[in-house]
Amino acid sequence: MNRGIQKLPGGFGRLWTAQTASSLGDGVTHAALPLLALTLTRDPMALAVVTAAGTVPWLLFGVLGGALVDRWDRRRTMWVVDMARAVLLGLAAAAAVLDVLSIPLLAAVAFLLGLGGLFFDTAATAYLPDLLHRDPALLERANSRLRGAQTAMSGFAGPPLGSALLALGRAFPLVADAVSFLVSAVLVRSLPAVPRPAPDARESLLRQARAGASYVFRDRLLLGLALRPAVGNIAFLAVETVLALFAHERLGIDTYGFGLLLTAEATGGLLGAGIASFLGRRLGTGTALTCTAAVEGIAILGLASAPNPYVAGLALAVCGAGMGATMVLGPSLRQAIVPAHLMGRVASTSRMLAMCAAPFGAFLGGWLADAHGVRTPLYAAGALLLTMTAVTASMTGNRRVEAALRAAAPDPVPGDRDQDDREREAASGRS
């Protein structure tokens, strides 16, 4: 009981501030890079290359990146990567000032930013459980705050700020993001060092990467946790691919209204992240994960049948809430049960599965809309989410979760065991 009311350590506050600043910069760049590309070309394929370049590192180096993070000092990895990204964006800003920006240069910047994100996100995921001593309750609270800040900064504040800065000049959003990475690097550099078990450096990097991936696929709980975002990405990308067209043709929503529709989803995401810990305590983490996944599927079916923009906005808000809670509970559980020396590889394997699934969802959504109408991808996505929920429910049930948490809990130190024995003896004497 007391564990749930423990305070988060001071180091977490610095990590939260660092990631909040970085998320704001990410939101700025997320809006500015496509707009920068648009000032250079109207070729849809060229624009798609810039957009897709940031996801390629996860597809090419996801598992290997996790193996490297498990070899390296995680705190140092984070601040060095942030410094490198700040320098990269500074160079890109200089190119904008000198009027030598090009589509290949923007694609290269997007690719390198994505590569930096791979290493930073994996290292941060592996560092947090060490900072919080793998306490499940603290991990849920910490991930709730991190997820909420990320949604607020990259989903609400960053994109309009990026567009506004771009109106001042092409270099301004790039400089703003560079500053955000500098702030993050300084804060991360001041975080406390945490001990970590180092893997055997004599073992090849490829063998270590394979060991991390096989660890996920052999464990039914971890596999269930990995399948949900992977299958979810297929469903959500199928929806995202046709959402603008659906909103325009079926709901009569204009460009401004479409932005409000997306804001409804982000608002739901903030709410879901905020109540995730409460749901985990009341229902158990396993049941909560099953319920949030079911809510996502039902909400997408509600979106598909929405008769007007208001119902569609409510459905997207409910779906966002389910997603926000899921993205707090799932990673928190993974961080609590995975051994420290495998954390980077397990996290990157799960993320890579989700990233690889996304293109299939985009293709599925486009094909279904072309062949059967614009509502069909939404119905298919809802059905897919509910099917995934049913398949993974037993894999991530409360009993399996509780058994994994017990197995991962550290043995009490001798002093604590002696104290427990004395307390039991005193209780027996009183009875």
UniProtKB/TrEMBL annotation:
Transmembrane regions listed in the UniProt entry: 45-67, 87-120, 164-188, 225-246, 258-279, 286-304, 310-331, 352-370, 376-396
InterPro entries xref list: MFS_dom, MFS_trans_sf, TM_effector
UniProt entry keywords in alphabetical sequence: Cell membrane, Membrane, Transmembrane, Transmembrane helix, Transport
Its membrane topology: Multi-pass membrane protein
Ranges of residues in domain Major facilitator superfamily (MFS) profile: 1-400
Record's subcellular location: Cell membrane
Pfam name, any one: MFS_3
Gene3D superfamilies referenced in this protein's UniProt entry, alphabetically: MFS general substrate transporter like domains (1.20.1250.20)
Compositionally biased residues, Basic and acidic residues: 414-431
Signal peptide, first to last residue: none
Region (Disordered): 404-431
Protein's name in the database: MFS transporter
Lineage summary: Bacteria, Bacillati, Actinomycetota, Actinomycetes, Kitasatosporales
